[in-house]
Design brief:
Layout (H helix, E strand, L loop, with lengths): L1 H50 L15 H5 L11 H20 L6 H29 L4 H23 L7 H7 L2 H19 L1 H7 L4
Helix pairs in contact: 1-3, 1-5, 4-5, 4-7, 5-7
Amino acid sequence: MLAEIDAELAAEAAVRRRAPERVTGAVLLLGGAVSWVAALVLMIDKLFLLENPGAQLGCDINPFISCGDVMSTWQAATFGIPNMAIGLAGYAIMACIGSLLLSGAQLPRWFSWATLGGMTFAFGFIQFLAISAIFVIKALCPWCMLVWLMTAPMFFAVLARTIESGTWRAPAPLAAVLRHWVVLSIAWYALVVLAILAGFWRQWLYMVGLG
């Protein structure tokens, strides 16, 4: 009888331990899938522009909401190849990792570090692209912003999982903050909104007739 109770308690504890893994898996699968679709649309649009220079894209809404304007800059191919090609590969990999976590697979420590490394690169690259779009290019790409939207929670969820699993033994105060990946994602969204309001302030005033 006691052995059965111990087994049930151990099983319940295992389920509780896996819960954060499954949440992270769901975030990676959803975020990776949505970002992959966005990258695919951007790649199709890029090929269309190469065949039809000067053509208007469906997301070319006005002078400061325009995928075409963003695609024509060097930042759209930062490493010499279109950014969307990197996204197609990278987000497909993250979606696969998400599927593994959802299935309950136990990933080795090095794999957790590799996943965090990949998401850190993606999140850092997103910062560069967002800052460039808002303050340098002065144009926003809706599909690009969808990728931004997905990448932030993917990064923060993976970071939190790395701490929860004991892979990274961060200092207690830092770990306490980084575990709140939802709050961190929302805070990042707020910063992006503020940056867009600041970067396009004159355009917003013009749109409402105050410019």
